Amino acid sequence: MLGRGLKRKLSDYEENMAGLSSAFDSSRSLPYPLKRQLVLNMCLTKLQTYKMLVEPNLHRSVLIANTVRQIQEEMRQESNQQPVNICPGIAPSSHSYTGIESSGISLQLPSGISQQESNCCDLRSVEDPIENSLLIVSDDDMSSAISSILKDLDFVEDISPPTCLVPTGDDQPKFPENTVLKLEDDRQDSKGAECVFGSFEISNSTSYLKDLAIDDIFEDIDTSMYDSDFCCPPLMPPRSPSLATEEPLKTFPSCNSSSANNIQICRTDLSELDHIMEILVGS
Amino acid sequence: FLEGFGSLMQDVLWCFSQVKGTIDIGVTEADIISTVEFNHTGELLATGDKGGRVVIFQREQESKNQPHRRGEYNVYSTFQSHEPEFDYLKSLEIEEKINKIRWLPQQNAAYFLLSTNDKTVKLWKVSERDKRPEGYNLKDEDGRLRDPSMITMLRVPVLRPMDLMVEATPRRVFANAHTYHINSISVNSDYETYMSADDLRINLWNFEITNQSFNIVDIKPANMEELTEVITAAEFHPHHCNTFVYSSSKGTIRLCDMRTAALCDRHAKFFEEPEDPSNRSFFSEIISSISDVKFSHSGRYIMTRDYLTVKVWDLNMENRPIETYQVHDYLRSKLCSLYENDCIFDKFECVWNGSDSVIMTGSYNNFFRMFDRNTKRDVTLEASRENSKPRAILKPRKVCVGGKRRKDEISVDSLDFSKKILHTAWHPSENIIAVAATNNLYIFQDKVN
């Protein structure tokens, strides 16, 4: 398997995921927390992919977000029933499983708790391919990921404003105030969960999700020329103006060009922008 | 109506009748069929595709010379219903794919249908022209204008026969009423109104008015972060023009009565089956999402399709369905893989036969399934070019779940998940079915005994 620090190619990742999901389906001895983690990671990966789309599929996003919430809730319940002292290297004790069972969800548990513990010890092994590809994600990150996905789905220019705020049906979400409180409680709980799972973390790749800031959507738009103090100085551009207007697209700065270049061609770019906007708007 | 129509499954032998579409190995995206619908008499069969085109087939008159060959369906009209659009405000491309086609009942010589993409519904008129006027005064036969000063006598133009021409014209365009993607349209039994449903809202339209619609259902929460459920399908009751149902991504169906309030927030009935704890998995909610809901012709039942089952509900019993049919339960142990490759989100449709005695839905590997509600027998058939000899009887197929695989069986792992049958249609009164397999349309009929 790949050593640490080497970037995995996307195709390898996809193959790995396909292999993992068929392992999930076929293997009965895969421990439940591992299965759950696998599903969670798949969900978050999908949500992240949708975030990059201009128009994510609302139906799918909602279904996946609900699945994440369900897993989140389960993990939270599990952590609430944990004893405070956890031996590093040992998985959550059997107490947590009774917690899950009591909430009415039946699981395919591996036979015998002792086997469970030994399986979890194996999780610490670096060479385990499944373990290497799983990332432990904090509760906080999950909540914020779901929130930001759903917020983005709220189109700015909504055509028909809601006529009333009365929820439809019995299972509709509660009024906003209650939800805000709930979120705050969740964050406090999640901090607790983090402490519990802190010693259990296999890899510190929580940045996996922290990169999912809303600002990242605008990453590819270069706004450095507007940030620069040198905006519109009386500088002559390197190219002759006539050439610049003939090839407006070519002189347009590339996405990640440094600000030094921008200062030089600042002036011509503004007029080129106008020119391009005219073309786009089709006036 | 045929004698003994709706008879036992064993008496119905399905035969290949026709297939439309190319045999090319590489399928053009635009040719993928996205909806299939017979009109109310079964004389016309319409398909919509991803490229925004509508193709209408017409059944030819039965000939006395060939009684065995019941009327074949031939192309009657083809037109571009929707074009790709670009929403400049949101910087979004609007797909031209036809999501649904619904026919209006015929009221005169012309045919009318509604077709919709994600955002816009259009009313199309399809009419025949087999005569044309000749003998204009101001134009000559080629259409060139004549010099009025050269005209010495007047005549009345006469209608002369011409080759049959079928024209499709857009009569109404119902636009700008949906923020989210339209998943259903349904014509009301009053034939004056229809509804269009998107992920969060349902709008009621009058056919004559295009710049206004009534919002009758709105489940959008004040805060989008609270969103946990979307509308997946909606349909009007076949006889009661005030009643409609809509299904959700949580596996529930709500029946609403438009007489109670302008905004139908409060359902009149709420259909939900309690979850089976032994089948619980991470994917339980996803597979419970209803992909299609259809009233029976009688109006007494509704049928819903979720990922693994088809359910029949009695309108008078809300707490559970009266019948549940397993479409492909062998996929239950493959859900993680199907989630990973997104197949779990495939939206299968379901249909009733004319007498509501048999229901049909699609599956993978170009298989489709029929369930006889009376005999409880079911059959799996395949739409494939190999079984496409004229009047060849379709052989029932079987998926082997584990252990020894018999000769004609196919194992679960060999199923082709790229060949999915999402759209099927059943003739309103006869045993003729249309099955869309990617870019091909198969028509099967029962064997004439």
From TrEMBL, chain A:
Organism: Formicarius rufipectus
Name of the protein this chain belongs to: SRTD2 protein
Origin: domain of life: Eukaryota
GO cellular component: nucleus
Record-linked PROSITE patterns: SERTA
Chain's gene name: Sertad2_0
Positions of the SERTA domain: 32-79
TrEMBL record, chain B:
Domain of life: Eukaryota
Signal peptide: none
Keyword Protease: no
Cited InterPro entries: PP2A_PR55, PP2A_PR55_CS, WD40/YVTN_repeat-like_dom_sf, WD40_repeat_dom_sf, WD40_rpt
The keyword Oxidoreductase is assigned to this record: no
One GO CC annotation: protein phosphatase type 2A complex
GO molecular function annotations of the record: protein phosphatase regulator activity
Keywords noted in UniProt: Repeat, WD repeat
Similarity remark: Belongs to the phosphatase 2A regulatory subunit B family.
Protein name: Serine/threonine-protein phosphatase 2A 55 kDa regulatory subunit B
Species, as recorded: Formicarius rufipectus
Recorded name of the encoding gene: Ppp2r2b
